[in-house]
Design brief:
By secondary structure, this protein is of the alpha+beta class. Helices cover 44% and strands 29% of the residues. 6% of the residues are buried. The mean pLDDT is 95.
Length: 68
Amino acid sequence: MKYVSYATYATDKTKIAAHRPAHREYLSILLNQGKLVAAGPFTDDSGGLFIYEVDSAEAASALVAGDP
């Protein structure tokens, strides 16, 4: 089943830049595991949208919680 999540970014661009490499690596792992269908930033760079393929809302929540 597919689950959608979105995130809004912190206003401090240095914090965003500091976490972005680990965040992208995490998404790459999920993609390779077949748990991430799609992800991308909003056009105004205020956050991003994520579509997960998992068995339950709890599993999707765990993936969100694990994102650096």
